[in-house]
């Protein structure tokens, strides 16, 4: 293997590890929330701040700072974000109050918005076609899925060992320091600037006028809102289940994350067998089916179908995210990644918040929030039917294939 190929492999591994590392913290909140409800005597809405607080910070950072990856380069942006994230995670060891922990989560959210937009833009730099971009994105999100399994496992292990859940963040901070050292030694590919237009926040907001940026962002919001219901509120929903399959309720979140991770690796193969439009149609329909049956037939069915939805959710987000970013020139990938990340994190923040508020209003039962999530899943399915019938992004993606990669 020559130096160029070795460097490219290192960049890919670094990118995959970054996705895995921050997933350990963001997707462990479903296990942490029941603990902080007891520890600090909180309502569902207040405890949910552990999720929607950092998600709101990611949203603000994504749209407000996403252009940094285009202006200062992928390497500087990624290292800056990783350093800030490591510092926030390390400080968890010193905290004892809910307010202090929430403050650190907000800081970590800002950091994630910085280094994730850099990583998303980097995927475009190392791809040789829009199809290659989608496959690499699914692989990266596959490692995110692995992190989403590791995080809850670490929290569960800590709690059963009598150790505070906060040391999950200390562990993640340590991993982050290692990634910083690796990132500092890697040579990154240069990004070709397409125009002389200033790279700043105004340029990012200008992208909001593009119908492809808005279209993909809105569809991704629907998906994320439906998905977030699983890892934020499903443990609480199924905690009241006492039927014959109580073991399934205990392992439901682990099963969901496992199926989601496996599905993202399988997506690389699946996308070579069918068009992405057909795949999105089939999988969004299956998600809607799982939600509707779970809500109409009760917990005896939900205990199996809600975790199973992870398999169908697996390739939705990375594929839509990739296609949305691929509709733009590489020199804009940081900014457009930030725009899509804003809508992603906003949905991940306010979706569970609305579900928690609605559930509290209706008496504190999590099932009412899942009724709302079912509506989001239904709207996503309708959007994917339109995408399959009209194929609105086909021409734009073909143009980018020709102009940037020389592919017909």
TrEMBL record:
Pfam families: MFS_1. It is found in: Endomembrane system. The keyword Iron-sulfur does not apply. Keywords: Membrane, Transmembrane, Transmembrane helix, Transport. Its main location: membrane. The keyword Transport applies. The chain crosses the membrane at residues 13-37, 49-69, 76-94, 100-123, 143-160, 166-184, 212-233, 245-271, 278-295, 301-322, 334-358, 370-389. It is a multi-pass membrane protein. InterPro entries: MFS (IPR011701), MFS_dom (IPR020846), MFS_trans_sf (IPR036259), MFS_Transporter (IPR051788), Sugar_transporter_CS (IPR005829). Residues 11-395 form the Major facilitator superfamily (MFS) profile domain. PANTHER family: BYPASS OF STOP CODON PROTEIN 6. Belongs to the major facilitator superfamily. This is MFS transporter.
